[in-house]
Amino acid sequence: MTAAPQALRTGRPTKPPRSLAVPIGMVAFLVITWLALSEEFGIGLDIGDLIEDAGRGVDIWAEFLEPNWAFVPQTFGPMLETFQMAVIAAFVGCAVALPISFLASRVTSPNLATYLADRGILSIVRAIPDILYALIFVAAVGIGPLAGMLALFFFNIGVVAKLLSETVDGVDTGPIEATRAAGGNRIQTTRWAVMPQILPNYVAYSLYTFELNIRASTVIGIVGAGGIGQLLNAQRAFFRYDNLAVIIFELFVFVFVIELFSIWVRRRLV
Amino acid sequence: MIRFDNASVVYPGGVRALTDLTLEIPDGQMMVIVGLSGAGKSTLIRAINGLVPLTSGDLTIDGVSVRHARPKQLREIRSKIGMIFQTFNLVKRTSVLNNVLMGRLHDAGTMRSVLGWYREQDVEIAMQALERVDIVEKAYVRASNLSGGQQQRVGIARALAQEPKIILADEPVASLDPPTSHVVMRDLQRINRDLGITTIVNLHFLDLAKVYGDRIIGMRQGGLVYDGPGSEADEHVFRDIYGRSLTADDVLGEPAAAPA
User: What's the mean pLDDT when you consider all of chain B?
Assistant: First the structure.
């Protein structure tokens, strides 16, 4: 004889009501996307136009597909310049970002005022896009790689300090307590209880900014900040898509090699 | 000597963790604190080195007030107090030796220690500390590659490297299995007896407390409910401390092996 299933004891909790935040958020996102696409409020995207216009680039695509390999030697100089700008900016930028990151985390910052001030400055540094930095420094120091390097330097501080200070926020605080209990001061605590924990991330972020710099150098070159971007802009102005294809291919290889290298480094470090 | 004078701790949010505690701990004593979770054991231990500040009353070590110490003074006080933690609190990504050298930071100078250029005598002190807990062969191994018991011995070595007058141990064996618990407790006992370091240990296993404590204090709701020698702490005493009869959960259950 089977009895109906029975609770083993009383006091089971009732299921709490489901939160509506997620469905409401999803609907809001859809509505905003639709408005952004609509003709009255948004950019007025028409799928029909998209299909009709797709054929217009065929000539350009054809030129892209026949890269002018004879152009390769002319890219070496600017490519090397881009590499140099990217390395120097990443190296100095990441070095400067390290202490800034420590001041921008509640875990290692000496007091609330320093923390807030540092966070405030950082959000300003980050709010300025890389191309605006390039414009500023081209105006200040003239056209050429120095302006590009300075632009990348500030761009790198913003990126690394944000990522790294959030990493510091998440470290295991046990060793920090132990170092304080042993009479260590704040700098010693940061060096020996925090640094070892964030080191793999720091290296990964540094390599990432180097990669970002290679890509950003194409954009900042357009406003005259040196490197491959300047050459790229010139070729675009002459409609030499066969030469552009060479530059784009080289950049792809460059970024891909950096990615492989950083995977290799990270695997060794963790 | 450590002296609590009507010491109280109220945490932000209103939780009273320590209530009007008056207590003297003479030099060289091995004192065990027992009590349920939340009774104030951890707070008492952390008040001694100022990790948890008192909100009223006072606490002095050899006549120097911890409560009124300025930051630099407080670091000086802490440099003479080693601390051992339930979860070891080692930096797992670095070597055992680097972890033990953290016990030398107070004397190494900021620049020197930041660069990792420890003086030869500091490295020697760290090595001797590792020898004392019998784990010196692991000096250059990454801390994450050690077992729990080994990590706790590194934690003890780090405390010893401070050349402390006092050692605080906050639930040092709560993350360890019973045989390893006895190894660690015997290490602490040996250090207390051989070096005359005042040792204060939080435990929640009563049999361990009786075996290793020269003196036991019992805590309940932030106050003292027992203070006496370990040998006199019987079932009735523990019933007072715990507010209920003892169960099998309250003892580790494994007798201490005969000392080798």
Answer: 91
Please give the residue range of the domain that contains residue B122: 90-163
Domain assignment present for A2: no
Spell out which residues of chain A touch residue B103, defining contact as CB-CB under 8 Å: 182
Mean pLDDT (whole number) for B192-196: 95
* Same-domain pairing of A157 and A25: no
A77 in contact with B, Cβ within 8 Å: no
Strand arrangement of the beta sheet that strand B30-34 belongs to = B81-84, B166-169, B198-202, B30-34, B215-220, B223-229
Distance (Å) from the C-alpha of residue A111 to the closest C-alpha of chain B?
A: 14
**Local structure of B5: helix, strand or coil:** strand
Domain count, chain A: 2
The distance of B114 to chain A (nearest Cα, Å) reads 6
Q: Does the beta carbon of A199 lie under 8 angstroms from any beta carbon of chain B?
A: yes
Query: Which ipTM did the prediction report?
Result: 0.90
Please state, in angstroms and as integers, the Cα–Cα distance from residue A28 to each residue in A24, A35, A150, A176, following that order.
Answer: 6, 11, 41, 43
Query: How much is the average pLDDT of A214-243?
Result: 89
| A194 to chain B: closest CA residue | B91
Confidence of residue B235 (pLDDT cuts 50, 70, 90): confident
Q: What is the pLDDT of residue B260?
A: 40
List B9's β-bridge partners, or say none.
B18
Q: What CATH number did the domain enclosing A74 receive?
A: 1.10.3720.10
Which residue in chain A has the smallest CA separation from B46? A181
pTM of the model: 0.83
Quote the domain boundaries for residue A57: 21-61
The number of helix segments (H) and strand segments (E) in chain A equals 12, 0
* Average pLDDT, integer, range B181-189: 93
Identity of the amino acid at B28: G
Going by C-beta distance under 8 Å and a sequence separation of 6 or more, which residues neighbour residue B248?
A: none
Claim to verify: residue A134 and residue A234 sit in the same structural domain: yes
